[in-house]
Amino acid sequence: MFRLLVTGGAGFIGSNFVHYLLRHTDYHVVVLDKLTYAGNPASLLGIPENRLTFIQGDIVDAELVRPLVSSVDAIVHYAAESHNDNSLSNPNPFLHTNVIGTYVLLEAARIHGTRIHHISTDEVYGDLELDDPARFTEATPYNPSSPYSSTKASSDMLVRAWARSFNVAATISNCSNNYGPYQHVEKFIPRQITNILVGGRPKLYGRGQNVRDWIYADDHSSAVHAILTAGRIGETYLIGADGERDNKSVVELILKLMGRDADAYDHVPDRAGHDLRYAIDSTKLRHELGWRPKYDDFERGLSKTIDWYRTNESWWSASKFATEARYGRSGH
Ligand code: NAD
Ligand code: TDX
């Protein structure tokens, strides 16, 4: 049986990927996750023991990582500190996990000759003007803005260097903004949905003109699996589903789908250094690997996501209070 190490498998996108593998493959998945505030073992409930081994640990711990890597056929590396706002208040864990953690995994992959797929973000390319006809491609120069995106850019550079200098069998994917079940309530879409569910109001940074390119998490998973199994070693693939929307429209759509007035939200101060627009051109992935997103209707995906938060309050309620207290202290 193919054994796959998934780092960060108790986080949002990692857990969606583990559920995807359960439905579409017969792999045995080994999840390595530190269970930071962002990791939730409840996201992996329902996965049978014969398909999943869960190990709580830090990817920076080389003594733990090396034997684990020697016991698997491949690695998909999701573990990261992932929230821009947190990186502005304390960059330190971002350096630890995103940079040193990736280095430790690459060294283990080099020593054991293990295939590794590295999960990255479109934010490494910086941002685009609202009226720029261009979108990010694999050839766009790196230009990260935040402590988060600069540590993700650093990790991508390490992967490229280990592939070239040590022939590590690596691929990289840079994906746009994900939404769907199991996303932490600190992030934009679940924050607004759960604010409404607890009787509060959505919070829009600045004027809400910033554009994000939304993809349903399950489509990200199918793309990663396609790259893992058929991608060319040493290559980078951009993943996106042509889902550009400005934040104000997204808040208004959430309010409409939840039966509230379209203007029932608050404006809060803007994020420092706030990237204006991200947009992905995923032609390479689509042409080379035949990948297509399944959830190309944002309103349908958003309705499914709202339903999920409505029916899974026990999954998110414990972290809601602490998250809003943190936002309250930063004025957001
Ligand atoms: P998340 O914050 O929901 O989950 C991160 C997971 O990593 C958590 O389970 C956490 O416990 C674990 N983790 C953190 N530090 C660790 C460490 N030192 N050792 C082991 N585990 C550790 O993040 P996410 O949104 O699911 O993002 C996953 C990956 O996808 C990240 O690499 C992120 O950069 C990338 N990405 C995210 C998005 C998005 O829209 N969320 C878009 C593109 C790329
Ligand atoms: O309450 C909010 N109000 C608001 O207007 C929050 C939390 C966010 N925003 C805005 C900021 C962004 O323009 O919404 C947009 C999305 O914000 P986030 O969910 O924090 O995502 P973003 O900063 O775009 O980064 C996300 O996509 C790329 C992920 O968190 C990253 O991990 C990924 O790399």
Summarize this structure briefly.
This protein is α/β, with parallel strands linked by helices. 43% of the residues lie in helices and 16% in strands. A 7-stranded parallel beta sheet has the order 3-2-1-4-5-6-11, sandwiched between helices. Strands 7-10 form a two-stranded parallel ribbon. It has a two-stranded parallel sheet with strand order 8-13.
Architecture overview:
This protein is an alpha/beta fold. It has a domain at 3-178 and 215-239: Rossmann fold. Helices cover 43% and strands 16% of the residues. The protein contains eleven helices and 13 strands. It has helices at 12-24, 62-70, 84-89, 92-112, 147-166, 188-197, 217-230, 247-257, 283-289, 298-311, 313-330, and strands at 3-7, 28-33, 52-56, 74-77, 115-121, 170-175, 178-179, 203-205, 211-213, 215-216, 236-239, 244-246, 266-268. The strands form four sheets. It has a seven-stranded parallel sheet with strand order 3-2-1-4-5-6-11, with helices on both faces. A two-stranded parallel sheet has the order 7-10. Helix 2 runs parallel beside helix 4 (92-112) and helix 6 crosses helix 10 (298-311). It is globular, with a radius of gyration of 19 Å. The model has no long low-confidence stretch (mean pLDDT 98). The protein binds nicotinamide-adenine-dinucleotide (NAD) and thymidine-5'-diphospho-beta-D-xylose.
